[in-house]
Amino acid sequence: MGFFDFGTIFFLVAAVVIFFQLRNVLGRRTGSERPPFDPYTAGRTRDDAQKPENVVSLPRKRAPGEPAIDAYAAIDAFAKPDTDLNKGLRGIKDNDPAFDPKTFVDGAKMAYEMIVMAYADGDRKTLKNLLSREVYDGFVAAIGDREAKSEKIQSSFVGIDKADIVSAEMKGSEAHITLRIVSELISATRDKAGAVIDGDPETVAEVKDVWTFARDTRSRDPNWKLVATEEED
Length: 233
Prior knowledge:
Layout: H1 6-26, H2 46-50, H3 73-78, H4 84-95, H5 101-121, H6 124-130, H7 133-148, E1 152-171, E2 174-190, E3 196-199, E4 205-216, E5 225-231
Antiparallel strand pairs: 1-2, 2-3, 2-4, 4-5
Helix pairs in contact: 5-6, 6-7
């Protein structure tokens, strides 16, 4: 049986002491440890990771004494308060809380270009999604008459100079908004032989239209449809 010298015994004792100290520190869980890194959820916060997947956060409840948000602020900034237009837009807002006049105008401008070009191209499918039944029937009748004569419209949409809401009102559950639109368009109608019979294929013409869009505020469909057209002289 061998023996340990003093130096060996000292290092053994020191190793045992260090082992127990490390065990006391590293072997206990305090509840504040960071979770192991997961590359598939690294972009989520810890709070997000603890939320069930099917939970949707609800809007924060207004604290006592906190001022209420002005629901008509966007409308008052768009149309002068106490005017008929402002009252009409407020009426639409009352029936459709998500309504915003500026957003509506931006969408109407896009719809205007799509309708003008779809009519020129004879694109019935696009027109059907953007027009009321009555307006659609009128457009399709004009397209059919043009096709029967083998006439074609050559159009290039330049842009919209102005698009202003001139009136707004509720008719039952339907919101109606009328805009005056000033656009620039190059357009010419050619006959079967290719001769120009209307318009000018090289001249930019100013076009002034008064269009009315409508939407049933009870419907889940957020889209507006063109329900009336009038060309301004």
